[in-house]
Design brief:
11 helices, mainly alpha, Arc Repressor Mutant, subunit A
Amino acid sequence: MKIELKPIQPKRISDQVFDQLRELIFRGDYQPGQKIMTERELAEALNVSRNSVREAINKLVTLRFLEQRQGQGTFVRPIDEAVQIPLATVMETQDASLIDLLEMRMGIECTAASLAAQRIDADELEAIEKAIGEMERDISSGGLGTEGDLAFHMAIAAATKNPLQIYIMKNVSDFLHMGIRENLLHLYQVPENIETIIQQHKAIFDAIRRRDPEDAYDAMRNHISFVIDFFSRRQ
């Protein structure tokens, strides 16, 4: 049997710039509404041409990660309202429940954890570990750890290095945030659940760090299944 191989294509500089900027946005290093560095500053920091930076920024603008404001600069765009509205409509008109949202997350995030285990780099591992630490600090201060929880799941999506996975997760992040917060408000009414949730996140991180896609998939499935089971018992 003849095996057809495709020649390896070197990655363009502008695409590498695009990947770095997108990851900074997705990991939350650049927040919605925040102004990013100028083309000149980025070109100097990345040791590339301004043209490569310009191409990367234009692509991010087209994908609605960034917006350019005349005379002010380039800013991180908030979650795309054009995507939020249909999702909100579906959830309202179809009487979608929190469990429906969790089941959707199961499909997306188990795959994301598995892919992350295969593709993650050192910076992305650090981002996931940092998110767990943020959760623990907030919880110890009496909070719910919502921001750290969201950052954890987003960092895993970023580590898939799949642009569609990242784009979809970014545009459902408001619903993910809503789901996480509502989950935790109820889950943490049962004190022993707090440590369980933290340990589940650590198990996911450990599997990804060990680069074990099957364990990562199972750990994420166990985590979301735990939450689904909790809410199913409440119905």
